[in-house]
Amino acid sequence: MQDVVEKVYEQVVARNRGEAEFHQAVREVLESLGPVIGKHPHYAEDGLLERIVEPERQIMFRVPWVDDAGQVHVNRGFRIEFNSALGPYKGGLRFHPSVNAGIIKFLGFEQIFKNALTGQGIGGGKGGSDFDPHGRSDAEVMRFCQSFMTELSRHIGPSTDVPAGDIGVGGREIGYLFGQYKRLRNSYDAGVLTGKGLAWGGSLVRTEATGYGTVLFAQSMLATKGDSLEGKKVAVSGAGNVAIYAIEKAQQLGAKPITFSDSSGYVVDEAGVDLELLKQVKEVERGRVADYVSRRPGARLVTEGRPWAVPVDVALPCATQNELDADSATTLLRNGCAVVAEGANMPCTPEAIEAFQAAGILYAPGKASNAGGVATSALEMEQNAGRTRWDFATAEAKLTGIMADIHDSCVEAAETYGRPGDYVLGANAAGFTQVADVMIAHGIV
Ligand code: NDP
Question: Where is the active site (predicted)?
Fold first, then answer.
């Protein structure tokens, strides 16, 4: 790292003690910006780097709620409004027991550059809670969401901050959150949340967008080598929103996904994932991956480790941060894997990324390859503002166009800064320069 950048990183570590994931995300961005600062030193002037790593606003609040047995629980709620240079803060809400300030800050920081790459005029933010929806009744999830929104509603709005889903927050949770917001504000502001149901302001393709976009990005990377996904074996991790629709799009493009996972283990289905069964188990029944195996002859459940031990051509980590480490990267490479596109946020550790880059394979960081979700959220906001609704083909064509543009701007930026094929530098440089230019235009605020 250059001295100027190293100093900013050290400040971040000193000021945000114990927030390992946030340090990791900042380091990854700052490290790759060396060639950008070298060519354009003004980006390191007027405290611009110091400002970009400091959230504009951090909100932390108590979320008390009562379970079905009458017992009171207290969770912690967060919303990090990180950067509004390009538009209202935009980013999901995560409900998972691991959530803390450092995790929400890392996600919010990544979101700034991801949202810039979409070209949709959205700033970066993220939020969530350490609430665990697993095993909770619908009534308990509803009461939690109502309590969470009672505080959050003071801070958000269609032109201020527009949350969406993430881990543990899907259509059901967005419904309860929107219902409470509408009741508190006495106002039908459809544009205050995205990922809404189709009957009340949602957009077609939003559910599919992150997974579809990840696979479209992998396809674009392969096209630069005159190749495609046709006939490729694919390992997917996760069995949630992103994983399911990555599997769907990979199958549509002629590839053969053979794995998926959740926190109880991973499934190997050499015959190819039965997507209908997976959707039934995960989306309808809210079951575990073992429920798939019990109904699918030939599929096996592995309860130790992650799916990266399975020989494949393409890996799509779609579960959570740091789920693919150096050892897994070495195994994937030894088995001939030539493409890794991140559906999750920061799923590969820095050491794994280093291994992929040293081997010269196609590697896409999540802030580029999983940007299809937030891009389609911006399309949902656009439809809400215009009181209109596009059909599936129109929305999907827009998503496809946006993913192609993101891919091309990463390629172009990597070339501009002298490292062709480096999608990490490409994504960070293309995202950072857009945000930085606007921050400079807005003055020191
Ligand atoms: P879901 O809650 O729908 O699914 C998450 C999946 O990952 C589940 O199968 C879950 O298993 C598994 N998982 C989560 N945490 C862990 C863990 N610590 N160890 C093992 N497995 C785990 O979330 P999404 O699919 O929406 O999100 C997945 C990833 O994609 C996240 O990194 C998210 O930030 C990122 N992302 C999501 C976007 C979206 O539009 N939804 C947009 C861009 C990025 P289990 O149920 O057992 O916990």
Answer: 126
